[in-house]
Amino acid sequence: MERTDIPLTGNLKGYNLPKILVHLNRKRSTGTLSVSTPNFIKKVFLVKGDAVFASSTYEDDRLGEMLLKAGKITVEQYDKSVEILKVTKKRQGAILVELGYLTPKDLFWGVKYQVREIIYSLFQLEEGGWEFIEGDVPTDEVITLKMSMGNLIYEGVKRIDNWTRIRKELPDTGVVLKLSDDPISLFQNVELGAQDRKMLTIIDGKKPIKEIIDSSWMNSFEAMKTIYVLWSIGILEEKEPIPEEIPETETVSLEDVLHPFAEEEDAFIKRVNDLYPKIANNTKIHEILEIDEGSDIETIKKNYYRLAREFHPDRVFATSDTAMKDKLTTIFDAVTIAYSALKDEQKRKEYFNSLRKPAEKEIKKPDDEEQFKKGVEEFKKGNLQAAADSFKGAIKINRDKAQYWSYLSLALSKIPNRLKEAEDALLETIKLEPMNGEHYANLGLLYLKSGLNKKAAGQFEKALRFDPGNVKAQKGRKQIKG
User: Fold this and answer.
1) pLDDT tens-digit profile of 227-240?
2) What's the pTM?
3) Which of 48, 296, 305, 370 stands 20 to 30 A from 21 (CA)?
C-alpha cells in the first residue's frame, strides 16, 4: 500500500475508495466522507477511523427498497408502509414494525444491511467527487455498524469485476509483492476466504505478479482479482529492491497472519491494564518492546511483530468498551514508536548510552539543575528572557532532560516573535519523551496560538492517544471545532 498522504478532497479518478478509507482509518480520523455524483450523494460516517454509519440520497438505497430486495418484506407490505409514511412522516422501519411485518430484531438487521450495502456500492464508482470533513458525526442514529475497516474494504473490493480498472489500479505485473511490513495492515481483522488464503501461500516475495498469475490454479482474471483484493486491504505491498550485501530476514510467518492471537479474554484484559499505565507513566521504550541492551535486531523485530499482533486495535473493534480500544491504540502506537526508535543499530547504541548519562553528568556537572531552578524563579517573576537564558544554560549542560526543553518552550512562547523557537524546543522535548501526551498538547496549543488549526488538531489527537484524559487537548480540540 502507498503510505503517502492524501488530501481531504478530490475525485475518485485520482484516489480510489480503498486508498481513502485506509488512509482515514490509519489516521484514526473522525468525520464524514461524502461522495457525490450527478445522481446522488452518499456519506460514510467515521469515528476514530472506523465506519459507524452511512446515508444516501439515492432512492434505491432507502431502507424499504433494501428490505424488499433482500426478501424481508413483500411488495404489498412495502406499498402499505409507503402509504402510511406519506401521511404520518414516520420512519419506514418503525412503520413496518408497527404493522407487524418486521420484528425489532429484523429491523436492526435491516439497518445494518442497508449501511453495509451503501458503503459497498461506493466501491463500484470509478469517478465522483469526494470530500472528508473532520468533526463529530450525527448522534441521533440508533444503530452503529460494528465491522472492522479491513472487512468493509475486503467485502467492497471483492465486488469489483472491472478488469480494466483492476489492471490499472494494481501495480505493474512485473512488480514483486510480499507480505506487508506494517502490523496495522498485516494483523487487521479480515475474514479471508479460502482462495485468498491459498493465494498468500504462493506469494513468496520473489516471483512477480505475472508469474504468480501464470502459475495459479485460477484463470487469469480471478487470480489478478484475488491479488488486487489482498493488495487493496494492505496485506500485500510492493517489495523494495534489497542490496545483495543485506540479507533478507523473515519478520512474520503466514501462520501468524492467518490465525488470530490466541489468548484467554481475562488474561488479555489483564495484559492491557498492566501495560497501559506503564506507557502513560513514560516507561522506557526498551521495556515496552521487552528487550535489553544485548538484544539483536532479529529479537527486536520478532518482539515488535508479536506485540503489535497481540495489541492490534482490531482485536476489540466490535466491543462497546471504547476505553479498551483507546488503551489498545495507545499501546500499539507506543510499541511502534519504540520499534522505530530502536531498530537502527547506531540509534539503539545512542539510546542505551543516554540512559547512563544522567548519573555521569550529576557527578561532573551538577549545576544544570541550579540553572533550571533559576529559570523557574525568573519565569515566576515575569522575566521571560532571563528565564529562557537560564533554561538554555541548563540544556547546554544536559540536553537529555525533557523538562528543560519544555520550560524553554513555555518561556519562548510568551515572548513576541519567538513561536518558531518555542516549537523547535517542544519538538526536542517530544524526541526525548515521545509517549508523553502533555507535550503533544502543548505543541497543539502553540500551533493554535499561531493560527495553524489543522496542525493543532493533529497534535491534540496525538495527545489524547497517549493520555485520553488530557484536559488541555480536550479543550483545544473543542476550541477548534467551536
Assistant:
1) 999 999 999 999 88
2) 0.68
3) 305
